Amino acid sequence: MKRNLLFIIYCLLLSLPAGAQADQNVDQIIIKEIYCGGCPKDEGSDVFHMDKSIILYNNCPERIVATNLCIGMATPYNAEANNITSIYDKEGQLVYEDEGFIPAQNAIWYFPSTLEIEPFCQVVVNVHGAINNTKTYSQSVNYAFPTYYCMYDPESGYNNTMYYPTPSDVIPTSHFLKTVKFGMANSWPLSTTSPALFIFQTQDMSPVDFATNADNLWYAPGMAQTTIYACVKVPVEWIIDGVEVFNAAKKESCMKRLTADIDASYVLHTNKLCHSLYRNVDKEMTEALPENNGRLAYDYALGVDGSTDPSGIDAEESLVRGAHIVYRDYNDSSNDFHERQRCSLRDYMPLIDNPQPEPINGDVNGDSSVDVADISAIISVMAGTAQYESADVNGDGSVDVADISSVISIMAGAER
Q1: Averaged confidence pLDDT in the chain
Q2: How many angstroms separate the CA atoms of 337 and 339, rounded?
Q3: In angstroms, what CA-CA distances link 21 with 9, 28, 238?
Q4: Rounded distance, CA 143 to CA 346, Å?
Q5: Among residues 256, 257, 210, 255, which one has the least CA distance to residue 234?
Q6: What is the pLDDT of residues 283-336, one digit of tens each?
Q7: DSSP codes of every residue in 134-158
Q8: Residues with Cβ < 8 Å from 47, sequence gap 6 or more?
Q9: Alpha-carbon distances of 93 from 43, 86, 97, 247, 325, rounded to whole Å
Q10: Which residues have C-beta within 8 Å of that of residue 160, sequence separation ≥ 6?
């Protein structure tokens, strides 16, 4: 048995291509919801905005496996910023439009290990305040759930405890996103009014190698080449999804930062009022799923000032009923998104989150079985082309041939 397995390993080592990864259906990850504008404090004196979050979603009936998944925001932080004209040329075109990249400002965040999302499930990523904020501000969001992820990496220099209190102890440390910080700030300055947010996947290199390479740094023309304005050039072909947000109160002053191939338009946002930006349902595709018969909820009524989901389907209530939702994804935020009265997490919390299966020793790639694919995953980690948090099978603090031997032993024991 072991001799046969060793021969298989030898074949894998010969056939494994450089940069091989176990990615599946990565192009089906979408940004489902953005909550960044904050909420009124209970006494009515001010606004609390240190409770931001992003929800990612698997928009297909197949499992997603994504290595090196990153989150970034385009420069400048606000669509209505005074310096936004610096990214436009005299003809009114984005200066990088023909260069094939989007400038991500200040830092990028990345999942430290492979992210797996089950069909029609979501992953909640807290940006600031990974605690139960409702204990202090009743209209805020509770992020104290073990299925949630959070941006938390104080060693990077993002150590402002007002934005990064110690995360709730129910959130596993394996769910803490890491960052590569190249700008000047003590917290990731995601706009409260009008971010241009995008997700991407580095290719043939790790997020750290990409963002620490000085050749990838970029500064808008005319701006000082200091950490205040530092960006990295994210290749357009790496970008999986992006959302351009305009400040509803200053719409006429807003200008786009994402190129039309990523987002052809924008969605309006009103901050300070608990609102979120929520993706519209693809009515035809959702209703066509046979398993949705009798499970879809209609008469959606949580839009804002005429901005609503034209499908009429209440996606969150439908998900709770067991329906599978397919969201619109046409790279056109004016049609793909609407402004929602409140973040969906306030009502439904973790009921529809990505399920977390019990870990199986030796199941490195997380497919609920121990087989040759797990050996391949370990080899990929050893080669530096993928990251699996379960690759240290024998628990000795390193990933090496001893872990391959452990997987072989587990497989041999299972076949006896």
Answers
A1: 91
A2: 7
A3: 16, 17, 15
A4: 10
A5: 210
A6: 999 999 999 999 999 999 999 999 999 999 999 999 999 999 999 999 999 999
A7: GGT-TTS-B---TT-EEE--GGGT-
A8: 38, 39, 40, 41, 271, 272
A9: 45, 11, 7, 21, 36
A10: 186, 187
Angstrom distance (rounded) from CA 25 to CA 43: 46
Beta bridge partners of 231: 105, 218
Query: Is the backbone peptide bond immediately before 195 cis, with ω within 30 degrees of 0?
Result: no
Residues recorded for the chain: 416
**Quick check: 143 pLDDT over 60?**
yes
Name the token pair of 268: 């309006």
CB neighbours of residue 351 within 10 Å: 9
Q: Is the pTM of this model over 0.90?
A: no
pLDDT single digits (tens) 108-138: 999 999 999 999 999 999 999 999 999 999 9
- Could you say which DSSP state residue 195 is in? -
The Cα 40–Cα 156 span in angstroms is 30
Angle at 105 between CA 56 and CA 36, to 5 degrees: 45
Tell me, what's the pLDDT at 384?
Answer: 72
DSSP conformation class of 327: B
Name the phi and psi angles at 325, rounded to 5: -105, 130
Query: Can you tell me whether residue 44 is helix, strand or coil?
Result: coil
